[in-house]
User: Fold these one by one.
Assistant:
Number 1:
Amino acid sequence: MLDWIKNLFVSKDNSEILEWRTNASIYKFLTENLNEEGRLKDSANDLPDEKPTNDNEVRWAPGLLDSMFGAQDSDESKLKVGELVKLLKRISEYGDKRSEAKFYQLVTETDSIISIIDDFLEKAINLSLPINPYLFEFSKELAFKTNHRNSVKVGIAMIGVCKGKSVINEIKTIGLHDEFTLFSIVAISNISNDVVNDFWEIAKKVDGWGRIHIVERLAKMELHNNVKNWLIIDGYKNSIMYEYLAYTCALNGDLHDVLKQGSVDTSIFKASAEIIAALIAGGPAEDISHYQFASILIENFVRHAKVHANDVSHFIVLNQIKDFLTDLQNDIAEKSKNGWTQDIISNCLIDIVEILNSKNWSELTLVALNSSDNIAFWNGKQAAKMLNIDIWEIVWQKLKINPSESSLWYDVVNEAKPENVDEVIMFATTVIPLKELATGPRDSLGLGPEFIKHQSLDYVITFLEQYPTKGEPIILTALDSPVTRNRNMAIKVLNKWGKNNWSESIATKLKQLSEIEPNSSTKENISRVLNGQDLSY
């Protein structure tokens, strides 16, 4: 009788059912790419379902799209949710294999699953569907037996709805990839007996958007001191921007209270410096103006700086604080917020000036500038600007040692003086493989490691703008580059030079390019520069 009733509701279509499960799943891929510390190796960054891209497509960082886009309320999304819920009902009640295959197909055909997931889950929950014997098994297979990110995300979400505690470790493993962290932590919040520690375990092992997603949620929970301390020392660090998490970690890690102590260790001071720098810089999240304990934070940091400030990075942040406080004095509205008083501001400024005058920061800056460490070198450049130190000779020597490093070309062309121009151009034409780069115009964005040499060319092209007639081989190469950006820069340089400074070779090349240029905007600008008109931006 039960089989007869079941058959009334299950499709009798005898066509072949799509096999959507696979042993080569994303979950298996991730487990095979764990290092000894339980973190994902760099080899796991690109998932098995990563679509091949051409050089004209932007690659999204894992987890970024789910951060940018939320639920959609379009008719199309509502229809899709309705269809998915109907299929899920058949699956949960009868284990219908054809509905499982159709469900998988619909999910994997959806461009952005984040746009429908909330609506789908809400409607599914309202149906109070039976979890066993079919729904939980189906959810697990979506999460752990498929090789498409959308099906994995939906499977994880459904496991959370099913309260599937038995697979929490597997969910945590998937959550180590930034693409799935957001979905994993939502599921874990529904199935974990210790959400704080489970979140913390994952947070320590992710770096990108996954770190941002999980720390934002972790920080709002009732935290024990170990987690608060981690928020201050490590939690704010991520590979996107420290500014995303600086405020969250400072506030919820009680950094202002920690700095009230008579003394702090070097790790706390270093982290405080980085957090304060991010808070002052501002950006995509709350900043120093939102921090109600800002005056306590800054006043005590400056006090500890008298003991701990011994690195160029400390010199930089102290100057940033100095500039911030100087501006604050003139902003009456801001000065009245977050505990600031004129006495606190004045005393901090006096102490900062004393610290800045207490060490030979120029000597420390030169040490940083000559370092092989990229971060130290970057800090050295920042400090050199503040100290008005000429770094031309340093960056020039670094470039000559490593001419393939595009960032050094940026430094050189920005630090070069008129007397250095001919030397820079000669070196560029010697070490940049111009013939190799002049492969003909294409409409390429020129992104990725294979275009590093084109990026070096960018900086040299821009450099030539102020020096008419110089570096003609570089301009000709740029006009023949497959990277649209290179050609646009060369056109801008030629417009700046004026037609009277063009050689016959350049005029001929530009006319030839006007016939074959693949980018419509660039083509229009070629026409404009040939006719002596202003460029269109």
Number 2:
Amino acid sequence: MEEVDINILEEKKEKILGFISSDEYKPMKINDIMLFMEVPIEDRDMFFSIVENLIKEGKVVLTKRGKLMLPEDLNIVYGTYLSTSRGFGFVVVDNDSEEKKDIFISEKDTNGANHKDRVLCEIKPNTSGKRQEGVIVKVLERGYKFIVGTFEQSKNFGFVIPDEKRIYKDIFIPKKYTMGAVSGHKVVVEIIKQAEQDKKPEGKITEILGHINEPGVDILSIIKQFELPTDFDDLVYKQIEDIPLEVLEEEKKDRLDLRNIQTVTIDGEDAKDLDDAITIEKLENGNYSLGVHIADVTHYVKEGTPLDREAIKRGTSVYLVDRVIPMLPHKLSNGICSLNAGVDRLALSCIMEIDNNGQVCSHKIEKTIINVDKRMSYTIVNDILINENSQFIEDNKEFLNMFFTMQELRDILFNKRIKRGAIEFDFKEAKIILGEDRKPKDIKLYERNIATSIIEEFMLVANETVAEHYFWLEFPFVYRSHQEPDLERVEEMSEFISKFGYRLKGSNIHPKAFQKILLKARGTKEEMIINRVILRSFKQARYTPKNEGHFGLGAKYYCHFTSPIRRYPDLQIHRIIKEDIDGKLSQKRILNLNKKMPDICLKCSNRERVAEEAERETNLVKKVEYMQDKIGQIFDGVISGVTSWGIYVELPNTVEGMVNVKAIEDDYYYYDEKNMQYFGEKTGKIYTLGQSVKVELIATNMYERTIDFKFVLE
């Protein structure tokens, strides 16, 4: 009944919006529209409720004269306001078509909007030809219901410094609302009065998380800051009570049985949710048969159940420094859904025949039953492949042929991707090692090796194959799309890298052109800078209901098929694939899925962004903590950023800190914005991007999450 009600509401909503969007429509008041559309008396409350939602969603605007109009007819757009720590910000428009750029909002035009608020923005006439500017006319929905920060105590009141630096105003806390917090407490604040002109916002403390120096409080603060759900509700736990710990005999029926084929998983040593397994064979015709077998999560996560609703709400698993916040409960993610060795598991398999040029000659996508013969780690497989005297050879004799066949196919697939222009960024990634006291004791760089590359290539080819298969079937689907960058941003990037002697050849934007620059920069002192600048010129990849190709991978068709334990888009397309295999994709079901896909894609893209921000923030906090006891030590580094307020320096272990230009003692330095450098007035000395420098650590600040260096002058 609930599903029917939702569908009826959606139909009526579309009907009202369709009426207001029609060419014949003239701005009318709500009551007049109701009379014109002949809404029955008993449906009038529902009508008002739907109109209220349309206004809240920004799809229609109620004018000062009480008439309903489309936002675009008033030169108004709907989007999310993203603030900066310096007061100004940008509105990211929901309609992300090419002609809609982010809109600049000066501090005086924010109209009380805070970071991440949903807003209506009026676009100002653009007479300068420069970036589009706007003024926020209405805040539709607050981005933050609660704000996390550090409490500072005064005699008769307190204030909270938000952890999110883009909320640039401190929050005033009247004494009666402090909950007894003292200076240094991490707290959660509810805003009870928004900021007005020069006045700070006012709030009340709803929760004290602990003192900033207590173990675990830093990560807990980030979990609260990003509103990450840590527990599953009782309905979810009740549902998973009935899920068995082993695959039942009746569940193995009507599946392709692959249990007699040699199968392995290859993951990191500490991985617990194993969602992909591999089979491989060299065929008599010289081709390769590659099977990518993915955990059949949707067998246990049925659509519309509490488990499914919780999974889409989370969107993804979040990997923080000291914990994983899973999309699914551990009973599934580490248990029945994990492709553990020696037990039967349900899978969805993409089995491909691939020739010596890397072309997929044929493929089939099947529901399968598998039994993994051995769990392998990247470290062990890599050692076997590069070291003929590896200590791991004896224990894995029966798998050696398999691993070397994997390497052969990996080389073919990798070379094919590079030939077509796939872009390979070479960024350093750090793993922060914590001690028993949860304090960081080391920062190590992740090492990419031949084994990680094998799995990466196999997942990529499976993702492309599945995406192309369902593109041609024209079924509803979730694609992983990456559009080509805007010409304007590419021109800015091209001008910048030319200072290092790099040229972007040709007027056509093609991934191969970027690839050539990255290859040329490899091994140079400016490699990191060139990688970063090119990446910043790119758009973000996102989930879309239409196939838009993947620019960075040089792929015409792409999706995420291989990680349904930790990503909802993968789980969603598994559901569609299985319904296709079982012949259950009726026209009614296709229509229903087509309506749902845009919303699912948007939610998943948004949750991915939140997870990335939270992961980045926990890494930053732990890096600051790691550097706390190293005051006075000298480090080699590279200038990674040049701004009007300081010079950023990155150390080999990825820790980044800032040098305040005013603190450079040997000269007065001018900022050259165009060339992204500082030069000394008397000495002519230059500090520029990519330059190797020596720095001394002079301060760390856990409140501000900052690291301060000064240059060691030679």
Number 3:
Amino acid sequence: MNRRQPGKRWAGPMEGKDKTILFVDDEESLLNITSEYFQQRGFRVITATNGIEALNTLKDEKVDCCFTDINMPEMDGLQLAEHLRNIDNTIPVVVMTGFPSLDNTIHTLKNGVVDFLIKPVNLKQMEVCVRSVLRERELFIDNIFLKKEVEKKERLERLNTELRNKVDELQIFTRIMEDFTTVQKSFDVFEILVQMTLEIAHADAARFYVINEAVRKPVEVAACFAPPEPASDYSSRLEVPGRRDPFHGAETTESIIMDIALGRDKKPVVISEGGGVIALPAGMRSFLAVPLVIRDKVFGVLTASVHREKPEFSGKVLYYLSFMANKAAYAIENLALYENIYENLLATLDALVQAIEAKDFYTKEHSRQVTGIAFAIAKEMACGQEELDILEVAGPLHDIGKIGIPDHILLKPGRLTREEYETIKLHPTIGADIVGQLGLWEREQQVIRHHHERFDGAGYPSGLGGDNIPLLARILSVADVFDAMASDRVYRKKMDEDHVFDIIRGAAGTQFDPDVVRVFERLYRSGKIHDL
């Protein structure tokens, strides 16, 4: 490729000789690439490395549109746009930047900028933009000459409407990008999703459900509702997951969510009252659902619904929310790649654990108690820091698989049938699969999978025995059984702790590792277990 000198002009093929593009950027490589590309497509190209050089060039040249970077030496892109507007307000200016923000967008639009591209810019995207703004310029120039003619009034109004809509679109897209760029925690992503959905879609309710191949029933983890009176403070709209309204958990909408997450299509949908073969719940005007996909796998589904006398959701709203879901997924991936990976993923999974415990008052705080006991045993057994770190993850999440167990079994107050017990026994495998989907924590995954194995090999899910069971799983097993029996449960009252201790000691060598039981006994007799 030939080196391009700033300020130099090139004429392309005859078909584009009457259209001239000015590219202004302090990156010479970008000028070279764009010049070569647009020259081959019939455009005449002029380049400059900053705003002052561009203005000097324009003393002798006429251009049809201008692409400019924002941050440049001597004169930046916004100052250049202001000068261009004073020279010829028909020249469309497109700003290119690697650091988009809502403030920048509004400021640039006030300076006569017609579009806003995010670096790195795709050349085909630039070409589409060039052809679009040139068409718009032609329309704009036509309207300047014809605006005094009454018969052209409607055309001018349509153009103005399109421009206003474009500004609105830019503001929405920039707001989405800005909010998901600055989010600090993975779980905050879900709250932002439902808050912005309520605003963008003008919905009555917005919810985010976790549902995927591991969690096969929708679990609500964030929800937001329109207030009775107008309000700007979204914090007043946030609700605790599980809030009920006439349509929450409706069979029809739940089947739509499951079909998107677990079916083959996995595409966003919008359904309106009387608009198709799927019947919405009585009183619901419109419903939409958008999957949140991470690495080609559905993690959850965002939904919105209109219950009152409001317009039904449009295809444009569905497009906005799909764009937002993509940015949310990208934000989650980015957060998972940086320093706070454990904090963010644990916060997300902890929300699922809380969702489980929120269903059953009797199991509240169980995960925390089990982790504390297991941690004390592991330290007493001189486990290293790596093992303790593994317990800090596996302990709180050891029962996360119960999110995949139906409530009528999980919360049954009486004795379980054989079939129901077999279903309960699936929760270690489900939990390990949930953690495994993150592509991390392989050893933690094994602890979660095997914390219900027995030392004599009669446990589940794999029937491992003795030292074949991971040590930390053997430790967690003792802690889990102690807290379970020493706490109130839906199917029985808690047992006396001394009696529970006797049961555990009596099961050493059969259900439990004798070495772990001996250490547990030492901690119990010293009172350290009671102090946790």
